[in-house]
Specification:
two-stranded antiparallel sheet; alpha+beta; Aspartate Aminotransferase, domain 1
Length: about 140
């Protein structure tokens, strides 16, 4: 079984952010980080080469594969700011309808800029997601 490549490490979060070329993306990422720090009560940690995660949980799939992942996180990708909403989005339809301009993947929320979304709704989404993950995984 292959090892999980994305792991938490003690890299310098601020140095990583300083390396992001897009100033707007860097600033938006810092704003999301501040919100995630408040919501989780956790300090940011680098996961892999480009995810800033908060807290962690341990998962085990039916296949036997297991690992650790952040409760929530953010990454200042080139195309968009990516937020990690680990339970996915099905249970948050009403919030997603009010969020604003975004795209989603399985557990990824993609926004071009924070100006495109309602910050209050975004905070509600992150809070609900973290609460769910803590209830489910302890």
């Amino acid at each position: 079984m292959a090892d999980v490549k994305t792991r938490a490490h003690d890299g310098d979060v601020e140095a990583f952010l300083d390396s992001v070329e897009n100033e707007r993306r860097r600033d938006d990422c810092r704003a999301v980080m501040a919100m995630m720090r408040e919501v989780t009560g956790e300090e940011p940690r680098l996961w892999g080469s480009g995810i800033i995660g908060f807290g962690s949980y341990h998962y085990v799939y039916e296949s036997g594969r297991e690992g650790d992942w952040p409760l929530t996180g953010v990454s200042p990708r080139k195309q968009s700011l990516t937020l990690y909403i680990m339970p996915g989005f099905d249970r948050y339809e009403s919030l997603m309808a009010r969020l604003g301009k975004h795209r989603t993947g399985k557990s990824c929320l993609y926004v071009k800029t924070l100006d495109d979304v309602d910050g209050t709704v975004l905070r509600e989404l992150v809070t609900a997601s973290v609460e769910y993950m803590r209830e489910r995984y302890g």
